[in-house]
Amino acid sequence: MLDDVRVLEISAPETMMAGSILAALGADVVVVEPPGGAAGRRMAPFIDDLPGLEHSLVWHAMNANKRAITLDLSATDGRDLVSRLAGGFDAAIDAVDSRDAAAPLDAIVMPERIVRTRISAFAPTGPKSAYAASDLVVMAASGAPGVTGDPDRPPLFFPVPQAMMEAGADAAVATLGALAARDRDGRGQTARVSARIAAMMSAMSQMLAPAAGNPEIPRTGGSISIAGVELPSVYGCADGFVLITVAFGPVFGQMTNRLAKWAVEEKHLAPEFGAIDWTTFIGDLQARTRKPSDLAALVEGLKSLARSLTKAEIGAAARRLGLLASPVMDMRDVAESRHYRERGLFAPARAGGRAIDVPARFARFSNFTIEIRRPAPALSEHTVEILETELGLSRPEIQALFAHGVI
Q1: Burial label, 325 (beta-carbon count in 10 A; 0-12, 13-18, 19+)
Q2: DSSP summary character for residue 43
Q3: Average pLDDT over all residues of the chain
Q4: 8 A C-beta contact, residue 143 and residue 171
Q5: DSSP 389
Q6: Residue 214 covered by a domain
Q7: Tell me, what's the pLDDT at 339?
Q8: 319 and 181, same structural domain?
Q9: Which of 275, 300, 329 is the last residue of a domain?
Q10: Is 89 domain-assigned?
């Protein structure tokens, strides 16, 4: 799909997803990292919990299909080599650290036709432009944690670097858009991506609501209140948690009818509650022909039912009965899911001296197949190859660069 596109990725945690998406679509992505290894190689979790430059599972997941070269961009020779390399590439992606005045590519002469995509924690202007930019800070500034978790407790934060991933995905889209513009008018351009804005947009712009005159969205803890009864969406089960939707009206209320009858059959709900027509429950509640205690009894019955079953059992029943219910999957569930296996979500690879599974594709297309063409590169794996074939350097010249710590 992108086999005629070449991308230089100045590796940083924020750039890895961008390069991964473009490489998966067929682009020739060359990762440039310092001689001591990119920061992404030091990101947990690690294979067998053993830290090491070749052991980061994050690195292996997000750098498949790329080649890698080591270059010290603080050295004049390193910057010169990147400048020479850039002449053969269509796009370059880097990330700016808020503590630095310049991004890695700022001191490097780049061709006019090259597309540059820069990721930063915040927009380059504004009150937060120089904030220390951990993923925790960016996510907090996005407002997303403010609508997660239970209202009587502090906000919940995310177990993975969410803002970093969202920014990388947006950077891939921005790069493709800039390349399309260059194909039209022949001019390169710089695209700027803010991780904070990316995180806000991924949360469906909920944090923008108050600024547009709408009420602030509160933390609900995954539940809503109807007539003083808390109606949860997440229920504890025998081996974790499940999502169960209880809704009303002519369409969704039919599912609630089936859900109540199932709870009755399993002896977790009194028979009279299985006979209620939940399609008209809200109207009946307003007409006072039904009571809030009816809904409270349904909720307690569903809690009891869920506690007695596993995620797999509830999922099987949902498919059989036509219910809106599904497991809350942890990473083990995802790894062992037959559905994801059959969809080809994972592919085998070798890393750290053993076999592992890595994410294989983020989408399936009718006219293109995403494949793992090569595993994530080892440190400096393609340095000699690229310097020889791209720049025509001799082996003695490459050895001199190595001796002086440039590669």
Answers
A1: buried
A2: P
A3: 92
A4: no
A5: H
A6: no
A7: 86
A8: no
A9: 329
A10: yes
- Could you list the residue range(s) of the whole structural domain that residue 264 is in? 223-329
Distances (CA, A) of 214 to 103, 173, 208, 278: 38, 30, 9, 31
**Residue 369 falls within a domain, yes or no?**
yes
84 and 198, same domain (yes or no): yes
User: What is Dmax (Cα atoms) for the chain?
Assistant: 90
Beta bridge partners of 257: none
CB atoms within 10 A of CB 140: 17
**The tokens of 380 are what?**
């400096």
In this structure, the chain runs to a length of: 407
End-to-end CA distance of the chain: 32
pLDDT tens digits for range 19-38: 999 999 999 999 999 999 99
For 149-179, give one letter per residue: b (16+ CB within 10 A) or e: beeeeebeeeeebbbbbbbbbbbbebbbebb
Name the strand (E) or helix (H) holding 115: strand 115-120
Whole-prediction pTM: 0.87
Tens of pLDDT, residues 307-358: 999 999 999 999 999 999 999 998 889 888 888 888 888 888 888 888 989 8
Q: What is the DSSP letter of 323?
A: -
Last residue of a domain, one of 265, 300, 329: 329
Number of domains in the chain: 2
Query: Alpha-carbon distance 67 to 318, whole Å?
Result: 45
The secondary structure of 299-319 as a DSSP string is HHHHHHHHHTS-HHHHHHHHH
- How far is residue 348's CA from residue 371's CA, in Å, rounded to a whole number? 11
Residue 206 pLDDT grade (very low, low, confident, very high; cuts 50, 70, 90): low
Evaluated on CA atoms 305, 269, 300, 292, the torsion sign reads: positive
Q: What is the CA radius of gyration of the chain?
A: 26
Task: Quote the tokens at residue 291.
Answer: 């009571």
Residue type for 159, please?
A: P
> What integer pLDDT is reported at residue 205 of this predicted model?
60
My answer on whether 44 and 141 are in the same domain is yes
> Is 247 in a helix, a strand, or coil?
coil
Place of tokens 């924690």: 121
Integer Cα distance of 319 and 238 in angstroms? 19
